[in-house]
């Protein structure tokens, strides 16, 4: 990793400059003691990498050092980013942390075993200068009583990938992030039970004034097909709120299909439709990296999806 950082090629330097300039235009800047930038990103099969600056057509995996530099440049624009599809092989993740430097930390789950778990982990990468861990880190599991409930919409088994809750502190604000990656299945109906399960879990938590903290934010890959479909209606029906800024048709999630509504950042509103947050939401959006990342390499979109991702990062800015 040392060589590419010391003497990157001209193409790599130009690409990174283009990405940095693009991020400056599209992502709010970090303001000391003023704002908090939270993001979520499903980084496709974030595991092994080809240990070259630039991969070649026959290389497997496709992700190379240049891709890692682009991923790190995107991540560093946020204070905390929830990552889905971290694989058991951590080479790519470790190299990303090396690029980010000593001011950045990681907390993650173990691997989800079994075929449905797909050998995936979930985790958070965060800027120590801006946020700190505040004590809670746990995976959410389904109570036996819920499994025993006789209902067409009841979960009959545990989450395929256990949602991961971690508490953080920024200034005098404490908040809990819960990240998840809903099993895709064969249709939207296959996802409803897991989405309702996590929404119910969080709703019970949010109603308990004696719980660890009420600042609950749910984020991750919900695998929602499109705006307004049954899965989305079920999600909203449980009381979770998606800010208008993240419901815009311009905030696309998938590099392949702009209609997909996979990734979300959401929280609960109270009876007066006021967010159950002590943080004030300011703005949100995605980061479309297609225009700037990996330019000058003539890479097909399918290949690029394995170098960066098939998902765009989704972000939300809060006032401290």
UniProtKB/TrEMBL annotation:
Sorted UniProt keywords: Endonuclease, Hydrolase, Nuclease
Protein name: Endonuclease
UniProt keyword Hydrolase, yes or no: yes
Keyword Nuclease tagged: yes
GO molecular function: endonuclease activity
InterPro entries for this protein: Endo/exonu/phosph_ase_sf, Endo/exonuclease/phosphatase
SUPFAM superfamilies: DNase I-like (SSF56219)
Endonuclease/exonuclease/phosphatase domain boundaries: 39-236
